[in-house]
Specification:
- The chain has helices spanning 19-23, 42-48, 70-90; strands spanning 3-8, 31-34, 50-55, 64-69.
- The longest helix has 21 residues, at 70-90.
- The protein is flat.
- The protein has three helices and four strands.
- The chain has one domain (17-90).
- The chain is an alpha+beta fold.
- It has a four-stranded mixed beta sheet.
- Helices cover 33% and strands 22% of the residues.
- Mean pLDDT is 70; it is low at 1-16 and 18-31.
Length: 100
């Protein structure tokens, strides 16, 4: 699902992605770059590692580069999974007219 690049670079601290970028978490055709930041606590270092992905939203081939921590990417993935399960459970989108 993800194509990873073996590039290790250091990036400035990431800012949270806007809500619309988070909703498109399932539309990932990504190139991943991980930072090489040492930390005293290895588990904390793993969760705070910054990962950059090139994400192409549905309907376009133009990818935008988004850099977030591993914890933020996992939260986006969990939100997308929960939304998908809700739609599957309820049978349709909340605001969609009946019959769609």
């Amino acid at each position: 699902m993800l194509a990873s690049a073996a590039c290790s670079t250091t990036h400035p601290a990431a800012t949270p992605a806007p809500a619309d970028a988070r909703s498109e978490a399932g539309n990932v055709a990504a190139e991943v770059q991980e930072t090489d930041q040492p930390a005293a606590n290895p588990q904390l270092a793993t969760r705070d590692r910054i990962i950059c992905k090139k994400v192409a939203p549905t309907g376009t081939r133009v990818a935008n580069r988004t850099c977030l921590t591993l914890a933020q990417w996992e939260a986006i993935q969990a939100d997308a999974k929960a939304a998908l399960e809700k739609v599957q459970r309820e049978g349709r989108l909340k605001d969609a007219p009946p019959g769609t």
